[in-house]
Amino acid sequence: MDAVTVKGLTKKYGENVALNNINFECHEKEFLCFLGRPGAGKTTLLRIIAGLEKPDEGEVYIRGSLVNDVIPSKRDVAMVFQNLALYTGWTVYNNIASPLRAHKVPEEEIKKRVKEVAQLLRIEHLLDRTPVFASGGEKQRIAIARALVRRPQVYLMDEPLSNLDALLRLGMRVELKRMQRELGQTIIYVTPDQLEAMSMADRIALIHKGIIHQIADPETIYRHPATKTVAGFIGSPSMNFIDGSLSEVDGKTILDCGAFKLDISKYRQVLEDSSVGSEIILGVRPEHLTVSHDKTSPDSIESLVVMEEPLGAETILHMRIGKIPLKALVPPTFHTIYGETVWTRIDMDRIHLIDPKTEKVIL
Fold first, then answer.
1. 184 and 36 within one domain
2. 196 shares a domain with 287
3. Is residue 235 part of a domain?
4. How far is residue 282 from each of residues 116, 170, 220, 244, 285, measured CA to CA in Å?
């Protein structure tokens, strides 16, 4: 049985469609991450699952039971918000214990559960203090502990790490995944941060303008994106997109991108099966480009260096091929100067071909 099932969910605010016919299942003990830009509909979806908002259409099931008309407190879900909403005048112990007291759980059971969750999240030393004296990461763990202590069927997490600095976010990602694995809990998590999604999720649902474009495990969503939106969102730096046109020359299928041409005859059958027109978009990730100072192959394309962006372990090299901007990942030892001519090879086994009319990835 799935932990959460959503069918045909639609939510509008006036003329604005926040969610458009959303359908998905979240399996038991799964870490499902909704990834999308601000305004994509992620928080609205969580609030509807939690019962804090009503959908205009569609159904929400928790462990097989329809909950559209069930009040939030009876849905057996716990939500962790972006703003932690801790009671600063209470001790950490009382903050964590508050949802149990609201459900009239006996004090002995409360003590046991608070101690267990505090040990799990390594905040036992904070129990007698107020949250005022806790660090950002500790406050986040307190908020998560308050949700965990209830032992609900499902945890809903709304960008819980967004207010932390980069180092704390990294540490909390590890903590959250460890906690989820140890307890075998079901988590639906929303974030605009692809690194969070890729590193923590069992599956990622990429949502854009209220529509789910793809649900898949991180490797599949990276290697086989379903749409141009998914292809452009996943990966850092983002995928290069280049407009081109198809033609047959001397029995070969040629992709003409203006400043350069590629022989894509090996993908002729894929193109024929897709019924794509003569126009097509080439997608290639920066990590699938090889840049050298010399022309090492007939397939090398003359490129002009625009800028280096050092990142420590690697460098993003910004180039132009004619008027076409292009990003490549190169080793930090590969040095160039502005305006220098370099040579770029495209890994033809890793390219993507996109129908510009539907924006569906056909390869």
1. yes
2. no
3. no
4. 53, 33, 19, 7, 10
For residues 135 and 258, membership in a common domain is answered with no
Q: Give the number of C-alpha atoms closer than 13 A to the C-alpha of residue 300, restricted to the C-beta side.
A: 16
- Domain of residue 341 covers 240-354
User: Going by C-beta distance under 8 Å and a sequence separation of 6 or more, which residues neighbour residue 189?
Assistant: 31, 32, 33, 34, 157, 160, 196, 197, 200, 201
Q: What is the pLDDT of residues 205-259, one digit of tens each?
A: 999 999 999 999 999 999 999 999 999 999 999 999 999 999 999 999 999 999 9
Q: Which of 308, 278, 275, 266 is nearest to 291 (CA)?
A: 308
What SS3 class is residue 264?
Answer: coil
Q: Which of 232, 176, 140, 164 minimizes the C-alpha distance to 33?
A: 176
Structure tokens at 290: 């090889």
**Residues of the chain falling short of pLDDT 70:** none
Stated pTM of the model: 0.92
